[in-house]
Amino acid sequence: MTSKIKTWLGMAFGAALLPLHAPVAAQAAWPDKPITLVVPYSAGGPTDVVARMLAIPMGKSLGQTVIVENTVGAGGTIAPARVARAAPNGYTILIHHMGMATAPALYKKLSFDPLKDFEYIGQVLDVPMTLLSRKDFPANNFQELLTYVKANKDKVSLANAGIGAVSQLCGLLFANQIGVNLTTVPYKGAGPALNDLMGGQVDLLCDQTTQTAPVIKDGTRVKVFGVTTPTRLASMPSIPTLDEQGLKGFDVKVWHGVYAPKGTPPDVTAKLNVALRAALQDDAVKARIAELSSEIVPMDKVTPESLRTLLTSETAKWGKVIKASGVQAE
């Protein structure tokens, strides 16, 4: 065999091996560009606050920038629809709260299936809620609030962050439990709703402590009437629960999870899970979440399996509540 033939065969053999090795090298390099973390609600809202807390430490863990993108509208359903249609490569991911579980019952036509169109990365944190009013609202405690609302139900406005938002569900449960129908005022996000409450344009709002804790602690811009969980908040122990003030069994808290498009490779979702876990154990993140009266879930819940189980059970639970209430969006 001549040297030229040997050289040609060697080159051909090497070229034949390239397709086998190239994908392995590319896959091992993930991520090699910024990752977009999609938020279904407006900047400054509760879910946006959580996303921005996680973005920097997750980026450090992954070695790439994590960009927060607010994709708002349709009660928080546009963002998951966008992520469900995104390329399943880990570069577009979603953070969402319990709205993923309520959407199937709230919307007749949903362009995505929360249980089938995503890979699960893990749970994030649980957030209590608080019932607030504008600072100059006539009532000064919960019993006065009940008396005033029942006597002036046609005049009292109840803000929320939009159809399907947790603030809407919390407000709906409150109104149902006290036996009145209140005028609801939907906003395009929790931030605008809270701003109008502080500005005196609306009367009441039930929203997450990631949004409300700073203004409650400020003490000059809103009144607070109770916490929506069965136990008081460690960071604000003077605020009684709605349950202990007479609304027996009232229990609403907001859970959050991170998702990727269906078909995202397992090694990529595993890296995202590692980054999420690292972010939740970051000292600055833990301090900030505690400051906002929220709780990071135990690390054994920061798993795909735990999030899948939670979403399945919560979808069944809230589906019954929503259908019984008769509330539905187009």
TrEMBL record:
Species of provenance: Variovorax guangxiensis
UniProt entry tagged with the keyword Nuclease: no
Protein name (database record): Tripartite tricarboxylate transporter substrate binding protein BugD
Alphabetical UniProt keywords: Signal
Record-stated family: Belongs to the UPF0065 (bug) family.
Domain of life: Bacteria
Stretch forming the signal peptide: 1-28
Phosphoprotein in keyword set: no
